[in-house]
Amino acid sequence: MDQLYLLATLAGTRVAVAAHQVEAVVKLADISPVPGMPAHVAGLSALRSRVLTIIDVPALIRGRPTPLDQRGLAIIADISGHSYGLMVDAVHDICQVPEGHLPLRGQLDRAWGPYALAIVEQDGQPHLLVSLASFIETGLLAQAA
Amino acid sequence: MVLPRAGVGANRSGRLVEKAVAAGKLSRDAAAKMSEAEKLDLIFHAGLSTAQSVTAISGRGVGMDVVRANVERIGGVIALHNQPGRGLRIVLRVPLTLTIIPGLIIRSGGLHFAIPRAAVVEILHDNNETLHVAEVGGAKIATIRSVRHSMIDLEDVLGMAKSDQAGPRAIMVVRSATGVPFALGVAAVDNHEELVIRPASPLVMATGVYAGMTLPDNGKPMLLLDAAGLANAACLPNVADERESRQVEENEEHAAKIEMVPALRFEELSGEKRLIKLSLVERVEDIDAALFGRSGAQAFVRLDGRLVPVANGAHSFAADHVSALRLRDGRQEACYPVAAVLDIVDMPAVPDMIAMHGLLSGVAVIEGEHLEVLNPFALFAALPDGLLKEQTRGRCVLVDSEDGWTREILAPLLRQAGHEVVLGLPEEAAVDPADVVLCSDGNLSQAAEILGCRVVQLRASPRPAGPQDSSIYRYDQDALMAAISGARR
Predict the structure, then answer these.
(1) Cβ contact (<8 Å) for A140 and B206?
(2) What b/e readout covers B247-267, taking b as 16+ CB neighbours within 10 angstroms?
(3) Given CB atoms, is A46 within the 8 Å cutoff of chain B?
(4) Once rounded to an integer, what is the mean pLDDT over residues A94-108?
(5) Are B184 and B152 in contact (CB under 8 A)?
(6) How much of chain A, in percent, has pLDDT values that exceed 90?
(7) A30, A51, A80 ranked by CB distance to B213: nearest
(8) Cβ-nearest to A140 among B203, B210, B233
(9) ipTM of this predicted structure
(10) Which end of chain A is less enclosed by CB atoms within 10 A, N or C?
(11) Distance between CA B484 and CA B479 in Å, rounded?
(12) Between these two residues, B39 and B250, which has the higher pLDDT value?
């Protein structure tokens, strides 16, 4: 497996995202809050005449919203026809990982359970491979529950 | 979008339940506890069909589960209304995706929102005098012009902090496509704009209070509120102010009950505006004022060679010509001079206020003006008697046709009283039993009595000649008239 991965830090954890899921990484501009939404929906943001729904992923994992001053970058993705921006702490690299993804090992924090698919190793460091769609779907489920 | 579905719809829910039980998706106990709406909802379960069997046509369509999934995917709502015997009505509420709608921009909790203008019935400031907001047990009730609405503040529904503000807040009466109108309190209504509505992401739509979003000029995305969703989110009771609906019903009943008749609105010579039923007015014409005259208390007008009574007694006018209504009750004719004929309006057949006096039957309110209504009954009843009399009576046969008094004094009197007068006995003894024979000769009267008709014998002296004398003094008009009419009975 010779795949491209985006390596980033999310909620203090190293993660990898399959590059084909990623449309862009942008610096977040103004976010218009959407009242009446769960905490992990940060709000709406306009990007080149598109409207993104910004998901505060760290809030989804740690359960508390990211302070405004720490909101920096977001991964833009198109998930089932809608544009989303998923907030991340930092983005490090896009690289090919010759080994591909490896099965999950060890006792995974339950907070990551719904999102982690596998392990991707780069420079000897394990990264959690996450699916961007899972953040949206889990969010919807959480809301419905 | 409403789809009236073919089929009878009768007991559809019953069949759904049977199918569901047969398919093992539902227990009998659970089915018994289900409400009608819940039973109908079974239609959305995958693999259930009400079709008895799968044929070339029946049972081949897309399942309702698929329909619902797709409608909900685009943020729509699907609802069912079962009318047994009339079919099932399927209502699809599809979001206003990428459409341009006129919307109001409102401010609340420091944010801007849009709401479709079609959903807004009216907007008031909360210091408006026609508005009264009461609070009981946390519920707010806004009474606007004595109609009560459930009231919610947008900040409360959306969980925002209410910001202090100097000016009055705005109260919008909002009506969604479904449900009853409610009052929505917002900080302010800022603007109205044509908005390009885009679909919001499912995450946002899932809240149920938003119908979409829009990107205005300032580049800050703005959410479009869904009026029905807000009411649902606030769990507003779905009750309209009964009094209002009752009033509407009453009004409708009232409207149905009131029979309207066309009426002529005119101005009296004395300046009042009055109404008269149009069907009584034969025509309106200008009459030369010189044609009007008066005799005693009775005014008349000379029309087409006849004297027509004037109903309101007017007989002298300032102008040369006067507008007059020619009235007719089918038999009698009367003339009613007016200052001006205004127009034709619809008036209630029974006046709004009954006040029988004189020529008036009451007062009707027409277009915010109260107008007296002429009473046609009183009008024609007040017409002079003599003119009303028709030649229905029998003839008066004056035997003494050669007598000067009979010819010159009695005959004109009788004619004036409406009798047909025959001078002298008819040639070929054609004396009708209804005829009255008047004579001054006792012998003749006996002869006439033999013929079988009533005889009135007149005498020249004021006193009767003797106790058997039944004749009448010829200048005793009352007795004479009484005798003639009595003779007829």
Answers:
(1) yes
(2) eeeeeeeeeeeeeeeebbbbe
(3) yes
(4) 81
(5) yes
(6) 0
(7) A51
(8) B203
(9) 0.80
(10) C
(11) 9
(12) B39
